[in-house]
């Protein structure tokens, strides 16, 4: 008897991955709550789910292929990364009712744009000139603070 097995990725049958943000674990929280199937995400879980590593990886690899004098190639790559972030996060943050976490999707988009701003030309698409350090500083602050502020549902 052949039984078809559908992989279950964190409770979302058939999804690519599960990136839904699940509340907050506070210090001293009861062990009973932590044992439930919908355990709240820790700060480190939220940072992993809110920074679009798949798009940053695509951009990093793709930008190495684009010649330095071909800025149009970087902008095509930025567009592809934005589309990938939106589509993947829309799919991977859906709850049982099929509703995605739009705030988490927006945070991931801003995270991607800030990390791209942190890159300096010729690799990065944005040229902030002598203020290039500001992009890196903003990305760093954003990446540390947002997971502490946004707790999901």
Give structural attributes.
mainly alpha, single chain, 153 residues
Question: What is the H-and-E element order?
Answer: EEHHHHHH
Helical run tally = 6
Molecular shape: globular
Q: Round the Cα radius of gyration to an integer and report it.
A: 18 Å
Q: Can you summarize the main beta sheet?
A: 2 strands, antiparallel
**Beta-strand percent range:** under 5%
Residue share in helices?
40-55%
Please tell me the total number of domains: 1
Task: Tell me, rounded to a whole number, the average pLDDT.
Answer: 81
Unreliable parts = 1-16, 25-36
Note down, in words, how this protein is organized.
The protein is mainly alpha-helical. Helix content is 54%, strand content 3%. The protein is built from 6 helices and 2 strands. It has helices at 31-34, 43-50, 53-65, 71-92, 102-118, 132-149, and strands at 8-9, 12-13. Helix 2 crosses helix 6, helix 4 (71-92) runs antiparallel to helix 5 and helix 5 (102-118) runs antiparallel to helix 6. The longest helix is centred in the middle third of the chain and has 22 residues, at 71-92. Residues 1-16 and 25-36 have low confidence and may be disordered.
């Amino acid at each position: 008897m052949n039984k078809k097995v559908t992989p279950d990725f964190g409770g979302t049958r058939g999804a690519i991955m599960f990136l839904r943000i699940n509340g907050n674990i506070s210090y001293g929280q009861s062990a009973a709550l932590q044992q439930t199937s919908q355990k709240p995400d820790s700060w480190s879980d939220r940072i992993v789910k809110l920074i679009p590593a798949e798009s940053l990886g695509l951009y990093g690899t793709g930008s190495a292929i684009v010649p330095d004098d071909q800025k149009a190639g970087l902008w095509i790559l930025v567009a592809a990364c934005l589309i990938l972030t939106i589509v993947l996060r829309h799919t991977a943050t859906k709850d049982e009712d099929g509703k995605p976490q739009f705030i988490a999707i927006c945070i991931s988009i801003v995270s991607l744009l800030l990390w791209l701003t942190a890159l300096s030309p010729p690799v990065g698409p944005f040229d902030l000139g002598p203020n290039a350090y500001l992009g890196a500083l903003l990305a760093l602050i954003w990446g540390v603070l947002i997971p502490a502020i946004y707790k999901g549902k």
